[in-house]
Amino acid sequence: MGKVVGIDLGTTNSVVAVMEGGKPVVIANAEGMRTTPSVVGFSKEGERVVGQMARRQTVLNPQNTFFAVKRFIGRKYGELNPDSKRVPYTIRKDEIGNIKVACPRLNKEFSPEEISAMVLKKLADDASRYLGEPVTGAVITVPAYFNDSQRQATRDAGRIAGLDVLRILNEPTAAALAYGLDRGDMETILVFDLGGGTFDVSILEVGDGVFEVKATSGDTQLGGNDFDRKVVDWLAEQFLEAEGIDLRRDRQALQRLMEAAEKAKIELSAVSVTDINLPFITAT
C-alpha cells in the first residue's frame, strides 16, 4: 500500500501535501517550490514539460503550452462562455461536443482530463521522491460550484495519472479543515478564495465534524493573473511612451515582463515599494 496525498489542483497553480505527525506538510517540487504551475507544454523537440518549465515557454511557444485547463474539465464545448475560449492555444469540439485541446507540435489532441492528469502525475512523482515510496492515492479538492460532471472528470484525471482518488473535497471545506474549524461548536464562516485564475466566496456552516456549503459565488475569469497583466500593461505603456516601442509585440520581451510583474507583485506582499529592472529588454 503506497502513500496517500492531498492535492489542490488549481486553475493556475497546484499544491501537494501529506500528513506527517498528524499535520499536513506541503511538499516542495523538484524545482524546490511549494507551488507548481498548472501548465503543460511540449518543447520544439516534442518533449513534455510540466510546471515552471512549461510556464516559461507560455509566450514563446503559445500554441503548444496549455494552462487554465481546469476551466474546461468536465464541460461541453457549448457550455463555455466567450471569455473561457480566449486562450492562445486551440480548443475545439469533437463529434459529441466534448472539448479537445490541439497540440500542433505532436499533431495530436488531448482532453482536458489528460492535460490535468499530466499535472497530477508530476505532483505525485514529486511527492514520491520526497517520501521515498510510491504515491498511490489522493484526495483532490475542487471548487464548491463544480457539478457532478466536473467532479467525475477530476476523478478521471486522477485515474489517468495512476492515482486512486479516495475523495473529491470542496475547496472551502478543505480550507476550514486546514484551520481546524470543524472541532468547535457549530458556526457560520466565510471562505474567500482568491486564486491565480479565479476567485470565489463561500459561506459554510461547520462544527462537530460536519460541513455544509450554504452558498457560493465568485468570478471564474478573475484572479491574480489579471493583476499581473495590469502591471505588464502599465510597464509596457510607460516604455512605449518613453521609447516608442511596444514590448508586447516582442514575445521574448513580453515573457520577461510577465515574470517581472509577478515577482514585483509577490515582493509587494512584504514591502511597500519595489523596483523592476530589465536590462537589454529589446534591441533598437
What does this structure look like?
There is one protein chain. The chain is α+β, with helices and mostly antiparallel strands and 284 residues long. The chain has a domain at 224-267: Actin, Chain A, domain 4, CATH 3.90.640.10. It contains seven helices and 15 strands. The protein has helices spanning 52-55, 82-85, 112-131, 148-160, 171-178, 224-243, 251-267; strands at residues 3-8, 13-20, 23-26, 36-37, 40-42, 48-50, 65-66, 90-93, 99-103, 108-110, 135-142, 164-170, 187-194, 199-207, 210-219. The strands form four sheets. Strands 1, 2, 3, 4, 11 and 12 form a six-stranded mixed β-sheet that branches. A three-stranded antiparallel β-sheet has the order 6-5-7. β14 (199-207) and β15 (210-219) form a beta hairpin. α3 packs across α4 (148-160) and α6 (224-243) crosses α7 (251-267). The termini are far apart.
Beta-strand fraction estimate? 25-35%
In total, the number of strands is 15
Instruction: Please identify, by name, the CATH architecture of the domain at 224-267.
Output: Alpha-Beta Complex
List the total number of helices: 7
Radius of gyration using CA atoms only: 20 Å
Key features of this structure:
single chain; 284 residues; 30% helix; Actin, Chain A, domain 4; alpha+beta; 7 helices; globular; three-stranded antiparallel β-sheet; six-stranded mixed β-sheet
